[in-house]
Amino acid sequence: MKKSIEVGPEGAGQRIDVYLAQKLRLSRNTLKRLLAAGAVCCKGRTVSKSQTFAQGECLEVDLTLTQLQLIPNPSLPLRVLFEDEALLILDKPSGLSCHPLRTDETNTVANALVARYPAQASASCHPLEAGLCHRLDKETSGLLIAARNLQSYRHMRKAFLGQHIYKRYLCLCTGSLPPQGTVSFPLLQKGRCSKTASPKSSKARPAHTQFRVLQRQGAHCLLSVEIATGVMHQIRAHLASLGAPIVGDERYGLGTLPHCPRLFLHATELRFSHPLTQQSMCFEAPLPVELCAVLEKLGFS
């Protein structure tokens, strides 16, 4: 729902976040979210919170985000490895989506976050993200970063987009791979999948995946994988394109195997600079027990 606001004499020269919060009877936090999400425009250009406008100028405000609200779900698992005033570091289990796509969804990390930390509802630009700065596939387990406020959220999103955050994964593949390598095929999203595409494709996104074989056992390779980019299903699509799909990958590979109950992909390490102190931070999450059991059954040491 969009609303047109003509700046009246009482709003001339006033900061737009203050004026609109009063005019639309919204909280300052809600208005900050709208502005950060680019939902306030003047003459087709997005407006920043500190801008001022003259009487008679017209603003377009998209109020859609004000109608979205997360439903807290305290029954979901939420393993918090670290928390301070700026960040939460989580270890997500497999089978749990990061955030809902509709307001009636409740079985996501975001729903668990707002149940334990109600202020997370306003910690990111989109009200259904609950401060989450990036995503993992539903089937993937491991480390997630959630910001505690908009300032930290914007800082961490900028760091992700600038490729300043180190991300390492562990996965088990079926197929023959060299000891190490880099995959740099651009990826094009097709529905709920990503496919390798020509570098000339205007809609394809650059994607770079580095892998190193840690152990081999029969037809399987245990890999350490590093990615700087974050395209949907990047690791899964890239390894499948090499003929070495991830074990348990029903979408890109061989489907569920008897000895593996889930996708064998785990976000095991994150390194980044703290948004407030700039201190170097490093977090690790060991393989879940069900994946360790798979390795044991296959004979990995």
Task: Please give a quick description of this structure.
The protein has 301 residues and is α+β, with helices and mostly antiparallel strands.
Largest sheet: 9 strands, mixed
CATH fold topology of the largest domain: Pseudouridine synthase
Question: In total, how many beta strands?
Answer: 15
Q: Which overall shape is indicated by the principal axes computed on the Cα atoms?
A: elongated
Order of helices and strands: EHHEEEEEHEHEEEEEEHEEH
Question: What brief labels describe this structure?
Answer:
4-stranded antiparallel beta sheet, 15 strands, single chain, about 300 residues, alpha+beta, Pseudouridine synthase, Structural Genomics Hypothetical 15.5 Kd Protein In mrcA-pckA Intergenic Region, Chain A, 3 domains
Task: Spell out the blueprint of helices and strands.
Elements lengths: L1 E5 L9 H9 L3 H9 L3 E3 L2 E2 L11 E5 L16 E5 L3 E6 L16 H8 L24 E7 L2 H12 L4 E9 L5 E4 L3 E4 L2 E4 L12 E9 L2 E8 L6 H8 L23 E9 L6 E5 L4 H10 L3
Parallel strand pairs: 7-14
Antiparallel strand pairs: 1-4, 2-3, 2-4, 5-6, 6-7, 8-13, 8-14, 9-12, 10-11, 12-13, 14-15
Describe the structure.
By secondary structure, the chain is an alpha+beta fold. The chain has three domains: 2-67, Roll (Structural Genomics Hypothetical 15.5 Kd Protein In mrcA-pckA Intergenic Region, Chain A), CATH 3.10.290; 69-162, Pseudouridine synthase, CATH 3.30.2350; 165-301, Pseudouridine synthase (2-Layer Sandwich). The chain is 19% helix and 28% strand. The protein is built from six helices and 15 strands. The chain has helices spanning 16-24, 28-36, 109-116, 150-161, 234-241, 289-298, and strands at 2-6, 40-42, 45-46, 58-62, 79-83, 87-92, 141-147, 166-174, 180-183, 187-190, 193-196, 209-217, 220-227, 265-273, 280-284. Strands 5, 6, 7, 8, 9, 12, 13, 14 and 15 form a nine-stranded mixed β-sheet that branches. It has a four-stranded antiparallel β-sheet with strand order 1-4-2-3, with no helix packed on it. Strands 10-11 form a two-stranded antiparallel ribbon. A hairpin with a 3-residue loop joins strand 5 and strand 6. Helix 1 crosses helix 2 (28-36). The mean pLDDT is 90.
